């Protein structure tokens, strides 16, 4: 009788312990090969490659983002830049690569880093602001702060990519002449 109750209990236990929703490790997209944060995609646009390259070169003018270290190769249709997104005292940086072709562009946002504000480390031996890769936050011990911060970072990076998408879909008369 004891064994029958034990067997029935073991058969019923997996159903009782099943979760309704699986645990989400990170809202940020992770590369399955390198396990680093990687935003990438291909977006169709009704324009030819020179127009798309000109639009990519004009971005991020007039937006809250900054681009530095621009390198453009018109022969291959590739533009590489370092993108900065500042929010108050916090700063998010990454490398953005845009490849254009007739009718579409492909982007990759990699090497993402997060700079904490100075006041986060205030103290007698504080060295000032600290910059760390986003993977350090992704692979940190789960906590409410980590979950909230990752969701905030994800929404900021999504807004940055949305700004790029809007710039690539916007037609301007002076963009083709560049």
CATH top level is: Alpha Beta
Gyration radius (Cα, Å) is 23 Å
Estimate percent helicity: 25-40%
Poorly predicted segments: 18-23, 173-178
What's the SSE pattern? HEHEEEEEHH
Largest sheet: 6 strands, antiparallel
Strand content: 25-35%
CATH fold field value: Alpha-D-Glucose-1,6-Bisphosphate, Chain A, domain 4
Distance between the termini: 85 Å
The gross shape turns out to be extended
Whole-number tally of structural domains:
1
Q: Structural class of the secondary structure composition?
A: alpha+beta
Total beta strand runs: 6
CATH architectural designation: 2-Layer Sandwich
User: Mean of residue pLDDT?
Assistant: 82
How many helices? The count is: 4
Q: How does this model look, in words?
A:
It comes from Hymenobacter lutimineralis. Keywords: Signal. It is a single chain. The protein is of the alpha+beta class and 178 residues long. The protein has a single domain, classed as Alpha-D-Glucose-1,6-Bisphosphate, Chain A, domain 4, CATH 3.30.530.80. Helix content is 32%, strand content 29%. The chain has 4 helices and 6 strands, in the order αβαβββββαα. The longest helix is centred in the C-terminal third of the chain and has 26 residues, at 144-169. The N and C termini lie far apart (85 Å). Mean pLDDT is 82; it is low at 18-23 and 173-178.
